[in-house]
Amino acid sequence: MKLQRSKWFKRLRVFWVVVSLSLVFSCSTLQLGKKPSILRPLMVADQSRQYLLYIPSGYDEQSPAPLVFDFHGSGSTPEQEVAYSDFQRLAEKKGFVLVAPTGLHDNYGRASWNTTMDPRSVDDIGLLKAIIKELTRELAIDKKRIYAAGMSGGARMSSRTSNGVRTV
Fold first, then answer.
1. pTM for this structure?
2. Which comes out higher in pLDDT, residue 112 or 30?
3. CB of 78 closer than 8 Å to CB of 161
């Protein structure tokens, strides 16, 4: 019995190593177009924030592009969310600029979003407004075509943006 259990645990260990490595490599190969994803810093209300930016290879500065926010779930990262949602491939195909911000709200020690609008926490709506302001200065963005999506806690944040980002 010990011999069988030992073999089973070795196989299980090998399985988890393979799964872990495949996740690491899938999250690190986000480039599809000529312009790679860039993790950009941004100061919002004296807090250092960051977001992942993807500009599709067919981007034309003469033609305003839609902007899509892709919010990660609680405890996740922008890189993991973009890999999970496959929005980078879709951005390349449909020609929209993709933004995946990083949440800072502490949700039991995990990065999340301040969807409850707790005034003692981070200003995530302020982050989105700052990103939109920055990108509309640098890129041709169609302000009438700004969209949001997300997974789990990111879906809550996506819903939250419908009331918070009306005036940009």
1. 0.76
2. 112
3. no
